[in-house]
């Protein structure tokens, strides 16, 4: 391990141990850090660059290096889908009290800003295969952004797809102005007689695109989770597909799998 990496590890540990609180200024690069670690200024700057790239510290030109306040953590569990299903048939006043994002973050409704954009699109071949419809079939594409108000940055990027002919049975489902919908997608599907049987999620990690990095305000070197959520009804039919981009610096994935006893 290079010397600058050892110094970065030590500084990181000192931050994690609470020696410097979020927002606190680190000791000056010179003479303090160079003296503490008995090394040159370029080596100290390499170590601090590692911490800046991973989002542990912020370098403010002319002022120094500061411990970065952690972004709002989102804990996404596979148990969220049953939680949503349990709420789908609840009265509206119950559904309006909270949503899946509040569950995942611990935030309240007043802490969040939400936006939704709907448009009618033609099914590309991969989506057509999933929905078992001809390519070019009309889909409702729903683009969602939910941000923690204090940060002003989306918690994730969501594109959801439904077969247009299916959801137009309830015209309210075609209106973005109706969002955020109390009870989410499972309640929306319930209004047109659809019950989900299972949700399958495919997750890969990859570098963000330039557009994703900009919108999510990601530091260089931070990856994203690309999640494709496929929802099946009780007849085994795919009824909704979502592509979700989750920032790797503020997302924790938790999977709980009940096991049958012998």
Structure description:
The protein is of the alpha+beta class and 262 residues long. It folds into 2 domains: 3-67, Winged helix-like DNA-binding domain superfamily/Winged helix DNA-binding domain (Arc Repressor Mutant, subunit A), CATH 1.10.10.10; 74-254, Chorismate lyase (3-Layer(aba) Sandwich), CATH 3.40.1410.10. It contains 10 helices and 10 strands. The chain has a 6-stranded antiparallel β-sheet. It has a two-stranded antiparallel sheet with strand order 1-2. A two-stranded parallel sheet has the order 3-10. Helix 1 packs across helix 3 (41-53). The radius of gyration is 23 Å and the shape is elongated. The mean pLDDT is 95.
Overall structural domain count: 2
Number of DSSP strands? 10
Q: What fold name goes in the CATH topology slot of the largest domain?
A: Chorismate lyase
Please give the largest β-sheet: 6 strands, antiparallel
Could you name the ranges where pLDDT drops below 50 across 5 or more consecutive residues? none
Q: What is the multimeric organization of the chains shown?
A: single chain
Main CATH class of the largest domain? Alpha Beta
């Amino acid at each position: 391990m290079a010397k600058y990496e050892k110094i970065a590890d030590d500084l990181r540990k000192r931050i994690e141990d609470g020696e410097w609180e979020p927002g606190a200024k680190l000791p000056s690069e010179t003479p303090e850090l160079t003296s503490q670690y008995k090394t040159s200024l370029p080596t100290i700057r390499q170590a601090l660059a590692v911490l800046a790239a991973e989002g542990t510290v912020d370098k403010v030109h002319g002022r120094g290096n500061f411990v970065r306040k952690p972004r709002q953590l989102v804990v996404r569990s596979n148990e969220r889908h049953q939680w949503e299903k349990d709420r789908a048939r609840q009265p509206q006043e119950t559904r309006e009290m909270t949503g899946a994002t509040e569950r995942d973050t611990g935030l309240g409704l007043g802490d969040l800003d939400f936006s939704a954009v709907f448009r009618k699109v033609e099914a590309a071949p991969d989506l057509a295969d999933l929905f078992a419809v001809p390519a070019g079939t009309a889909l409702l594409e729903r683009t969602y952004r939910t941000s923690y108000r204090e940060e002003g940055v989306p918690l994730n990027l969501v594109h959801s797809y439904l077969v247009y002919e299916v959801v137009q049975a309830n015209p309210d489902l075609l209106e973005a102005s109706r969002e955020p919908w109390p009870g989410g997608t499972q309640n929306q599907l319930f209004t047109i007689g659809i019950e989900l049987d299972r949700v399958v999620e495919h997750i890969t990690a990859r570098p963000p695109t330039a557009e994703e990095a900009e919108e999510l305000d990601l530091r260089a070197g931070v990856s994203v989770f690309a999640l494709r959520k496929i929802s099946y009804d009780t007849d085994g039919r795919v009824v909704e597909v979502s592509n979700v981009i989750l920032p790797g610096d503020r997302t924790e994935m938790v999977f709980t799998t009940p096991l049958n006893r012998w």
